[in-house]
TrEMBL record:
Belongs to the XFP family. Gene3D superfamilies: 3.40.50.920, 3.40.50.970. Its cofactor is thiamine diphosphate. It comes from Microbacterium schleiferi. Residues 19-382 form the Xylulose 5-phosphate/Fructose 6-phosphate phosphoketolase N-terminal domain. This is Phosphoketolase family protein. Keywords: Lyase, Thiamine pyrophosphate. InterPro entries: THDP-binding, Transketo_C/PFOR_II, Xul5P/Fru6P_PKetolase, Xul5P/Fru6P_PKetolase_C, Xul5P/Fru6P_PKetolase_CS, Xul5P/Fru6P_PKetolase_N, Xul5P/Fru6P_PKetolase_ThDP_BS. Pfam families: XFP, XFP_C, XFP_N.
Length: 797
């Protein structure tokens, strides 16, 4: 049944009487789960079950429920006996009925939703609203007290658990991993997270791999592994596995005894590891500990119908969702459902009012905040503390002109290092092996090393077991760690190459949906913002080639509400500083910031940067309707709009070319930093007046965009643009080439933009033709130079 005895047994804590409460809790939580799937009335079977008591649509997942409720019961026993501070993460999030049930039993559900009290009426409401229109989602979601992840987030449970455990030394995160989930790439990478956990300053994670054998209709790989291979696999990940096999168990005393002994052993080992590491003799060079984990084998759909219409159900894929279908229309199945529900003996579990009995309530930790459904860690906004933010003036670029060249990320990195120094326990940086490449290391690493809890070698640099930088070559881990960290009340930054952040597209989607859903529940406190810094972007990946050139993450993020997502493209160092200061101080958002790391021209003073970032867009300094060197009082002949650092550089160069060739034209350069301000109809949008102030009325627009052109066309669709828009951006053309050749290939270079401006303006046709010929000739010369010499013409800098 289990592979070894416990170091401390349950009988030494509470004796066999504890099994009574364990079994009562398990039956009650499982009964409530089944009731949610099937019943809309008669919740306690006070009368014989009738068709009208059954829901018209049967939705939900039962197969994983009995394992979840069993584990939750035994973790509650650990909390009650040891005072352990615990967070529960349910990887099989489609087991939503179980998470609703345990929260209702603990009283946190009723405290959160007073119209569903712990009573027969409250139970009826819980059942009838589950998976019903306008009711309770079938998966775990922000509606569940104690939850920090959406049920659809398959593969992310373990990485969330490790993110939650960072910098929380008193916490144990119990993470249940479904065996289908265990087959995903994100989960497979997550096992390596243990190598980054410092037992002295971080909490602990107890992975519980739940092997019940089946996915929707297919066996699971890890369940079919030979026992020794499974042990070798988890041992190779640095864990000491505790195997619990309950597939053939039927006696409640045996089931709970085996499970309790496994839990005691796991928590004793965690305590030993932390006590040893935190003692005076704990050595920083000590080898990383082997943390315990539990492997629970049980039958899928355990305690449910063994057979339906002669087909096996319990222990098979048929129990994954709704084991008994068409119940209301089949008297035989209705009777079978009633027998199933009564097998949990609800009369023993709930009194005449529907209140859980003493045997059930005995397993509820006190006070409510000690419960896993009531912990403030699962409502991280309650624990969020504002960061201490250093002044920007100390790092801002002072001498701003078109001749100055600064790396925006290098300047920001200096300020980020100061931010880390000022917030040594609430802020972490997560980097996919790119901190130095993205030019943040120069400022950050003097402030903090990179966390590394494995063996070190003499050539290693900037590694320590206590660092604020988490660097690993997995975007999945960086995203998941930061999600877990932010969801439990802390702050952080995820920096990545722009092209490779696509690895976490699905994770971004799920997290954005979590935030949108959470905002509809007033009891969910606002979290710190989740911030991406995407550098090494499409226009500066000429040396790495076509595979590294992709700005499409902006398209993905733009599909979300601007109430949640902000897309920022600061064109220089000072606008990046102001953008990131806002990202770290404004809660409740996902910030996607795209900024270059190469030395580039600087446009905005710090004060000007504050104004343009606050407005979301502004006129580029020195580029306001210039004609013959003067500014006018009327709308320009054309607006050269731009968004992104390289497009801003090319737009300004195009302006200079046009003024050289057609000095009577009035050209305004408008840089858009907050991209979603261009989308009409949302609270953050530029209104018609603000848009007209920047872009004029009836003025043609030539737009140079960092990403794919169609995004700008979509954003401008509902805005009052009456004279037409020409958009240039990335056209999926690239190679291993030069920076300017990238612009030429995608037709976003200054010569092409200048030609677009001339073609949009009213002017003498002969003058236009002559100017266009000059531009075409210069464009050809630039192409010939880079092809002949292998580098761009220095005159184009």
């Amino acid at each position: 049944m289990t592979d070894s005895g416990a170091l401390t047994t349950i009988t030494e804590h509470a004796g066999k009487d504890a099994f009574v409460s364990l079994d009562a809790w398990w039956r009650a939580a499982t009964y409530l789960s089944v009731g949610q799937i099937y019943l809309r009335d008669n919740p306690l079977l006070r009368r014989p079950l009738e068709p009208e008591h059954i829901k018209p649509r049967l939705l939900g997942h039962f197969g994983t429920v009995p394992g979840l409720t069993l584990l939750y019961a035994h973790l509650n026993r650990v909390i009650a006996e040891r005072g352990t501070e615990m967070l529960f993460i349910a990887g099989p999030g489609h087991g939503g009925p179980a998470m609703n049930a345990v929260s209702w039993l603990e009283g946190t559900w009723s405290a959160t939703y007073p119209d569903m009290p712990r009573s027969e009426d409250g139970m009826r409401e819980l059942f009838s609203r589950f998976s019903a229109p306008g009711g309770i989602p079938s998966h775990t979601s922000p509606h569940v007290p104690g939850s920090i992840q959406e049920g659809g987030e398959l593969g992310y449970s373990l990485v969330h658990a490790y993110g939650a455990a960072l910098d929380d030394p008193d916490l144990v995160v119990a993470c249940v991993i479904g065996d289908g989930e265990a087959e995903t790439a994100a989960l497979s990478a997550s096992w390596q997270s243990a190598a980054f956990l410092d037992p002295r300053t971080d909490g602990a994670v107890l992975p519980i791999l739940h092997l019940n054998g089946w996915k929707i209709d297919n066996p699971t790989v890890m369940d079919r592994m030979p026992e020794q291979q499974l042990r070798d696999l988890v041992s190779g990940h640095g864990h000491d596995p505790i195997i619990v096999d309950l597939r053939d168990a039927t006696d409640p005393i045996e089931i709970h005894s085996v499970m309790a002994h496994a839990m005691d052993r796991a928590f004793d080992l965690i305590a030993q590891i932390q006590r040893r590491a935190r003692s005076a003799g704990g050595s920083e060079s000590e080898q990383a500990p082997r943390w315990p984990m539990i492997v629970l084998r049980s039958r899928k759909g355990w305690t449910g119908p063994e057979e339906v219409d002669g087909e096996p159900v319990e222990g098979t894929w048929r129990s994954h969702q709704v084991p008994l279908e068409d119940v209301a229309s089949s008297p035989d199945r209705l009777a079978q459902l009633e027998r199933w529900l009564r097998s949990y003996r609800p009369d023993e579990l709930f009194d005449e009012r529907g209140v859980p009995t003493r045997e059930v309530r005995d397993l509820v930790p006190e006070p409510m905040g000690a419960t896993m459904s009531g912990t403030s860690r699962a409502n991280g906004g309650l624990r969020r503390r504002d960061l201490v933010t250093p002044e920007l003036a100390g790092e801002a670029v002072e001498n701003v002109d078109r001749a100055s060249n600064e790396s925006a990320t290098t300047v920001f990195g200096e300020w980020l290092g100061e931010l880390v120094r000022a917030n040594p326990r609430d802020l972490r940086i997560f980097a996919a092996d790119e901190l130095r490449s993205n030019r943040l290391a120069q400022g950050v690493l003097p402030a903090t090393p990179k966390q590394w809890n494995q063996q070190q070698r003499g050539v290693d640099e900037d590694l320590a077991s206590r660092g604020r930088v988490m660097e690993v070559l997995s975007e999945h881990l960086c995203q998941g760690w930061l999600e877990g960290y932010v969801l439990t009340g802390r702050h952080g930054l995820f920096t990545s190459y722009e092209a490779f952040v696509h690895v976490v597209d699905s994770m971004f989607n799920q997290y954005a949906k979590w935030l949108e859903a959470a905002a509809t529940y007033p009891w969910r406190a606002e979290l710190a913002s989740f911030t991406y810094l995407l550098s090494s972007h499409v226009w500066r990946q000429d040396h790495n080639g076509f595979t590294h050139q992709d700005p499409g993450f902006l398209d993905l993020a733009a599909r979300k509400s601007s109430d949640i997502v902000r897309l920022s493209l600061p064109p220089d160092a000072n606008t990046l500083l102001v953008t990131m200061e806002r990202a770290f101080t404004e809660p409740g958002r996902i910030n996607v910031v795209v900024a270059g790391k190469q030395p580039e021209k600087q446009w905005f003073s710090l004060d000007a940067a504050r104004r343009v970032v606050a407005d979301g867009a502004g006129i580029l300094p020195g580029a306001a309707d210039a004609a013959n060197g003067t500014d006018g009082d009327h709308d320009p002949d054309v607006v050269l709009a731009c968004s992104g650092d390289v497009p801003t550089q090319e737009a300004d160069a195009a302006r200079e070319l046009v003024l050289e060739l057609a000095p009577s034209l009035r050209i305004r350069v408008v840089t858009v930093i907050d991209l979603l301000r261009l989308r009409a109809g949302e609270p953050q949008s530029l209104d018609d007046e603000a848009f007209a102030t920047l872009f004029g009325e009836g003025v043609p627009i030539v737009f140079a965009f960092h990403g794919y052109p169609h995004l700008i066309k979509e954003l401008l669709f509902d805005l009052p643009v009456t004279a037409g828009v020409s958009v240039r951006g990335y056209q999926e053309r690239g190679s291993t080439t030069t920076p300017f050749d990238m612009l030429l290939q995608n037709e976003i270079d200054r010569f092409t933009l200048a030609a677009d401006v001339l073609n949009r303006c009213r002017m003498d046709e002969d003058e236009r033709a002559e100017a266009l010929a000059v531009l075409a000739n210069r464009r050809e010369q630039a192409a010939n130079h880079l092809h002949r010499f292998g580098v761009d013409d220095p005159a184009l800098a």
